[in-house]
Amino acid sequence: MLRRLWTESYVTFNGRGHTLDGVGLNRTPAEMIPIWLGGEHDDALRRATRLADGFVSLHDPMRDVLRVIQYVSELGRDPAQFRVTVRLAVSARGPDDWIGEARPLQSMGVTEIGVWTPNLQGDAALRRLTEVRRVLADALPRTTAA
Predict the structure, then answer these.
(1) Is 11 helix (H, G, I), strand (E, B) or coil?
(2) Helix (H) or strand (E) holding 88
């Protein structure tokens, strides 16, 4: 439905949860906006791979990412064009640990890694995030995902 609103002048839709009658946007986006979905249960993973442009793993990335890539392939979609993001906690460890966790994730199909500092705040958190970004950018090859 969102993609129709972003590309068509007026949209009429009668669905299970929503009804639209000749609705349009004043200005459609110049580029398609990617839709990301997340979740933990199998239904959510299957929905994301069927409908979205990317998946946000908020739970066990080692389990979720492999299933998402499998489901994308089963649908005949190109896994290299489907984006996957995970979170990586980086408070108490160092560069070798960050790289050691990030490389296998990327080789599994993760295209973006979000970093967070659960035990740091303020300037200390900002310094750590800046350091992690530099370390991972230098250590990991760029992906080819769109």
Answers:
(1) strand
(2) strand 83-89
My answer on whether 22 and 63 are in the same domain is no
Query: pTM for the full model?
Result: 0.80
pLDDT in tens, 97-139: 999 999 999 988 899 999 999 999 999 999 999 999 999 999 9
- Angular region, 55: left φ>0, alpha ψ -120 to 50, beta rest: beta
User: For the chain, how many structural domains are there in total?
Assistant: 2
Task: Show the domain range for 77.
Answer: 35-139
Within its chain, how far is the Cα of 115 from the centroid? Answer: 13
Residues in the chain: 146
DSSP state of 75: T
Residue 93 lies in a domain: yes
